[in-house]
Amino acid sequence: MRTKNIVLVAHDAKKKDMVDWAKFNKGTLEKFEIHATKATGERIIKDVGLRVKLLLSGALGGDSQVGAMIAEKRVDLIVFFWDPLSIQPHDVDIKAVLRLAVLHDVPIACNRSTADFLISSPLLRE
Fold it and tell me: Which of 17, 105, 106, 122 has most Cβ atoms within 10 angstroms of its Cβ?
């Protein structure tokens, strides 16, 4: 059985939320291959102690890398804590990730409640 891939992304205002969520779910997350945009991944490595494959920073192409992973069927779950109250210079890339996730039927959580439901689902382990 192949190891499933989870992508973690968090905007600056949501990085603490992502770290807190990853700490709470560390035991579960350790069973998966984790990919994350640069700053998010570095925080998770430092503060949570998980192994993370780093992508580029979201604004410098990391969001596009996530989109490519989705299109190539290399993502099983995305947790993307985006900040709906801040303007992002790479908003087009963010929308592309969201669109591709829906288009390719990849579960995507944009808040902690949804992330908790998805990470605890027995379907994730199948």
Answer: 106
Chain Cα centroid distance, residue 124? 15
The reported pTM is: 0.94
What residues are annotated to the active site? 63
pLDDT attached to residue 102: 96
Based on C-alpha coordinates, what's the Rg of the chain?
Answer: 13
User: In the 3-class helix/strand/coil scheme, how is 45-107 assigned residue by residue?
Assistant: HHHHCCCCEECCCHHHCHHHHHHHHHHCCCCCEEEEECCCCCCCCCHHHHHHHHHHHHHCCCC
- Give residue for tokens 């990470």: 119
Low-confidence ranges of the chain (pLDDT < 50): none
* CB 98, CB 7: distance < 8 Å: no
Instruction: Write phi, then psi, for 87 (nearest 5 degrees).
Output: -80, 130
